[in-house]
């Protein structure tokens, strides 16, 4: 049986017990949706006593299914006010599974002003440790201090100063497999602020002396299916640009087709997009001792991560991704990859979402607080976030807070969360996903670009977004979506895989039902939290302003969106 | 020979990247990225001529990063 840890931050107690039967077969996003609906009042204060912070592993945690070691983090979002699941790669989920722990629930808030680390030791014991010496310490220094104290056979899940200050853009950073850098993030929705509100600085998960034995109903069958699925993903990865280059490769297509956001989603093309594109990135890696094709978690065959160095060969950042490059780059009219890498590092270090922060910086440029493309001024503003100045605090609360404060009429958010690096006028299915996802504007909830969507026309975009959103609900419960995309021909095997692990039905409808149930539960939570169909809408300017690149505007009407989830 | 995703294609003088991909019968779409000997080419650069023995990789973005 998988176990559950309950951490009460008011009484400072830790309880370890068997996970409830109803949650044993769940994981990731699916588990978080069901848990929150049952245990957290949707109208609660996200930073108050009633909200819970959830960490959990996936449906297939502890197994050799590739990329299954994602760490899902959940709670009522301080940013969106709705339900939130944000997942991350890194080493933590694999080690939690080795401890036999599927779910960690952190509830209540401390009645003192101390902060704490939750420490899982090699002997399996779990303790809350006072962590005041780490107060205000940012993520890179924090991990170094922990490695110095305990060695490196561990994973950290931590907040930086942004989470401690309760910034609504605060992320939770997870240490990467092998490198140990805190460069993987459960970034979206301000869950770092929720962790800060609980007085929890970090989870420190040491490798256990005795590895938990995963309970299978039919281990032989499970391994047989996993071998087939892993081979499928490994074969697909060979022709996947994320494996061969990194997610930065996406710049090469979005830069050419008008999907890449430029100057706060102005709809213009960015002539210098290749300055932040794949060739520049690969050249910089090759000439400076950087690397790509790195796994962020054990057993990953996608290996899309990277390590990016400066001109002198010194490490700047890792997990340097498309979203960060697109939004700090062309969307802020910046074309210097090294500067963008520094911004990525600053975000990981203080612990904020790069998407939210880059959009907040674009708001400063849009309203004339700083000039378009002024990277030095942008870095200065980000330093204010680290230092906690008044304006730094405003920036830390994200794109909408900054845009409203500075008087912008073009604030790119949905459900208060900043839009990712795809202009929805030129990928309308993705726009539908931004508008209707219970998570707010989130590209990982259903990005409808590519072969399957190119020829299906405008009318079918809602259908595509709907199907993909459901599919990614179960993907987010099981594995990394990059690996999932190569598993499409073998998806029916996921039903058999669940049966081999947990027993019960082996048909694929078991899996799709999990996806449908998850998204309907999330939407119900949001409705109870006060959201309405008016929240399922893109910002007005996408409906009114045409993309300069293509002449297109977002013309999916409200009625199409209202019926999207009537299954 | 030209190698497209490791598949050998007979080289003809004047052969473009697009020709080689067409002969390989690999599908492309709006999310396709092509690498020629490790260098990424845009979709609008596919009429560039190839030299013999180059390696072409046709890569397709399947999901967002």
| Major sheet: arrangement of strands of chain A | 2-1-6-3-4-5
Radius of gyration of chain A: 22 Å
Count of individual beta strands of chain A:
17
Tell me what portion of residues of chain A adopts beta-strand conformation: 5-15%
Largest interface: A-B, 39 and 23 residues
Average of the residue pLDDT scores of chain A: 96
The profile of the biggest β sheet of chain A is:
6 strands, mixed
Protein model, in words:
The complex is a heterodimer of chains A (567) and B (65). Chain A is α+β, with helices and mostly antiparallel strands and 567 residues long. Chain A is 40% helix and 14% strand. Chain A is built from 24 helices and 17 strands. In chain A, helix 12 runs parallel beside helix 14 (375-387). Chain A is globular. Chain B has 65 residues and is α+β, with helices and mostly antiparallel strands. Helices cover 12% and strands 31% of the residues of chain B. Chain B is built from 1 helix and 5 strands, in the order ββαβββ. Chain B has one helix spanning 17-24; strands at residues 2-4, 7-9, 32-36, 39-41, 55-60. Chain B has a 5-stranded mixed β-sheet with strand order 2-1-5-3-4, with helices on one face. In chain B, a hairpin with a 2-residue loop joins strand 3 and strand 4. The model of chain B has no long low-confidence stretch (mean pLDDT 88). The interface between A and B is medium-sized, with 39 and 23 residues.
